[in-house]
Amino acid sequence: MKSTRKFYWIFIFLCGLSLTKVYASAGKGDSLFFRGEFRDAALEYDRQFFMASDAFTGAKALLGKAECYKQMENFVAAKTCLTSITLSNIPDSLLAQIRYQLALNSYLAGDFGMAESEIILLEVIESPEIPASKILLLKSLTYNELNKYKQAHDAVLEYISNASVSEISRDSLRREVETLYRSKRLPHLKSPKRATILSIFLPGLGQTYAGYPGEGIISLSLNVAALGILVFGAVNAYYISGYVVGAGFLQNFYNGGQKRAAILANKHNYRVTREFNDSIHHFLMSIR
After folding, report:
1. Predicted confidence band at 181 (pLDDT cuts at 50, 70, 90)?
2. How many domains does the chain have?
3. By the 8 A CB rule, do 257 and 207 touch?
4. 124 shares a domain with 9
5. Are 262 and 196 spatial neighbours (Cβ–Cβ below 8 Å)?
6. Which residues constitute the domain of residue 79?
């Protein structure tokens, strides 16, 4: 739910293309769409697709259907709809709109790799249908989510160069970008594999490496306690009960600690990248 809310304001900003430009021909689907009846509009666009006599008309109908899904925040369905469009024998102006919407919905659906691929294909098309600023904004956000910070830095600077701001503001924004992307501010990620190996070497060490020393202490204490039960049973001749209880607990705590260390490393990585990327999002959305 939190992720959906986070994407929603980005979605509103990125989707500012003129819908009347996308849907040039008036029809029942368009009327339903502009009345906000997106589910019924999607069904009508689907009917138009099956009735289409050529690739252009069919592509326009599926583009309209995808727009309905996007307005309903079903970005995965919108992406799936767009990928089903036959891209041969359609003009570059329509192709550019499809590529952009596919990149946008892939981004909003969390498929950042596909968003990057579609942006690369979109940049090859020579069409004025999609403003360069829209592409650069989406490109900047996508590279950040992929942790490709060098490419993101360059894309943000290019976005600022195309922004409608004064030269004084532009220079100020460029300085802020350099500050934001300083190496010390970039997320420092933890290796889940290394966290696991450290926990094998010493229980609790992997959790401490991942940035959770409290859990590391607890893990080490549990393993020591389980080992203590095992030793106590052996010393006091409770061989069977001491082994069953002590060894059972020790195995569970030891193996569980390794898995937990990897989970915590991933949790750390998500938190630091989310904080950094959100700061970039807010910066980009502040540029007008």
Report:
1. very high
2. 2
3. yes
4. yes
5. yes
6. 2-128
